[in-house]
From TrEMBL:
Residues 1-445 form the Amidase domain. The gene is gatA. This is Glutamyl-tRNA(Gln) amidotransferase subunit A. One of its GO terms (biological process) is translation. It comes from Ciceribacter ferrooxidans. The active site is at K52, S132, S156. Keywords: ATP-binding, Ligase, Nucleotide-binding, Protein biosynthesis, Transferase. Allows the formation of correctly charged Gln-tRNA(Gln) through the transamidation of misacylated Glu-tRNA(Gln) in organisms which lack glutaminyl-tRNA synthetase. The reaction takes place in the presence of glutamine and ATP through an activated gamma-phospho-Glu-tRNA(Gln).
Length: 453
């Protein structure tokens, strides 16, 4: 009730929820009460959560915040959300996001931008919460849910977490099932939680993660008790500081915060090692080939026949064209065009194949680094939250893509990455730091992040 009331009074201003499910929430809460009374409480019993609009939720609108999926109600539940409900969690509703998870500011949603609950001191300007999981991050930061599901293809969990002072983790590729999650770029997409602190994120990820017959890329490795890692000493842990993340024009405040993070981890007993990840600078351009290529293939299914919107035409080709023209937003169309171009016969070798080779090199950089260190500490965003409608970013898509400079490497290599709030900038806005780990060593990230938070 308290969360539903909070949503009722604050959602008009924040726009974090695109669908609220009060009846379902109260019904699930009642079932929770009954299980608690019967002594059968799950680990998340009665905990109210928000769900990114990318996760299929049975009989509840699942629209990826796109007009092309308007009013789509799946008859099935995603594995990740089912895992949460099986542990007793309660669904409050569906959260706003960039259309099809394409974006870094949550401004490409068909349902309008999300307003970051944080404001710069002395200013009334509305700021973005980051993207694409902007609704998830804003809802958690504004106490409109106790935690939220999110997804990260190139930074969409970690960057919004950093912009809203919350904790977000993108687990290792294969840790969570992708079944029932609307696909953006299948070889990069992973689900993870956004939560108020490291402990909550650890508890939520344990519940979300599982091997799943319905997703052949999910991995059959036991899910550890991440919470047990919190509070352990960092003695013997080796932390790598990659020199390539010190990019030109990086604000001094972020540089300082990074140094502060190093000092905290050192104080807790960790050993700091300078490392090199030489192919880092190629990650962003390679990502913006691989991700749109996969998107152009995945989004071909929105043809006006199977899901959501249909705009009638004089024949089937005309119907496809009209449906897609009306249903997809500008950024999504841009990605489909880029993806189709880089996969076309004449350009495949020059772009797509080349990007896949770069991807292997990035992966190898990390493999070599992880021979020497246990985790990597790096910045997460090149700035704190920026204004909604920022003209420079709106006019230049590539400038917006630059937001992802510190996050996409992790997706390209399939590694776990965690964003933890580490301080405020001079404007009083939150800044985060990123921890990157070996495959399936999320516990190491939680342990180190707990020292920083
Ligand atoms: N900003 C990146 C993109 O637009 C990442 C999005 C994501 O992680 N879903 O592709």
């Amino acid at each position: 009730d308290a969360y539903l009331q909070a949503i009722e009074s604050a959602n008009d201003a924040i726009n974090a929820y695109v669908t609220v499910t009060p009846e379902k929430a109260l019904e699930m809460a009642k079932a929770s009460d009954e299980r608690i009374a019967a002594g059968k409480a799950g680990v998340l019993e009665g905990i109210p959560l928000g769900v990114k609009d990318l996760f299929a939720t049975r009989d509840v609108h699942t629209q990826a915040c796109s007009a092309v999926l308007s009013r789509f109600r799946p008859k099935y539940e995603s594995t990740v959300t089912q895992n949460l409900w099986d542990d007793g969690a309660v669904m409050l509703g569906k959260l706003n996001m960039d259309e099809f998870a394409m974006g870094s500011s949550n401004e490409s949603s068909h349902y309008g931008p999300v307003t970051n609950p944080w404001k710069a001191s002395g200013s009334d300007q509305r700021l973005v919460p980051g993207g694409s999981s902007g609704g998830s991050a804003a809802a958690v930061a504004a106490h409109l849910c106790a935690g939220a599901t999110a997804t990260d293809t190139g930074g969409s969990i970690r960057q919004p977490a950093a912009f809203t002072g919350t904790v977000g983790i993108k687990p290792t590729y294969g840790r969570c099932s992708r079944w029932g999650i609307v696909a953006y770029a299948s070889s990069l997409d992973q689900a993870g939680p956004i939560a108020r602190d490291v402990r909550d994120a650890a508890i939520l990820l344990k519940s979300m993660a599982s091997v799943d017959d319905k997703d052949t890329t999910s991995v059959d490795i036991p899910v550890p008790d991440y919470e047990a890692a919190l509070g352990q000493s960092l003695k013997g842990m080796r932390i790598g500081i990659p020199k390539e993340y010190r990019v030109e024009g990086m604000p001094e405040e972020i540089e300082k915060l990074w140094a502060q993070g190093v000092a905290w981890l050192k104080d807790a007993g960790a050993e700091i090692v300078d490392i090199s990840l030489p192919h880092t600078k190629y990650a962003l351009p390679a990502y913006y080939i691989v991700a749109p290529a996969e998107a152009s293939s995945n989004l071909a299914r929105y043809d006006g026949v199977r899901y959501g919107l249909r705009v009638d035409g004089k024949d089937i080709a005309d119907m496809y064209e009209k449906t897609r023209a009306a249903g997809f937003g500008t950024e999504v169309k841009r990605r489909i065009l880029i993806g189709t171009y880089v996969l076309s016969a004449g350009y495949y070798d020059a772009y797509y194949l080349q990007a896949q080779k770069v991807r292997t090199l990035i992966k190898r950089d990390f493999e070599l680094a992880f021979n020497e260190v246990d985790t990597v500490l790096a910045p997460i965003t090149p700035s704190s939250a920026f204004a909604i409608g920022d003209e420079a970013l709106a006019a230049d898509p590539v400038a917006m893509y630059m937001q992802d400079i510190f996050t996409v490497t992790v997706n390209m290599a399939g590694l776990p990455g965690l964003s933890v709030p580490a301080g405020l900038d001079a404007k009083g806005l939150p800044l985060g730091l990123q921890l990157i780990g070996r495959p399936f060593e999320e516990s190491t990230l939680f342990k180190a992040a707990h020292v920083i938070e």
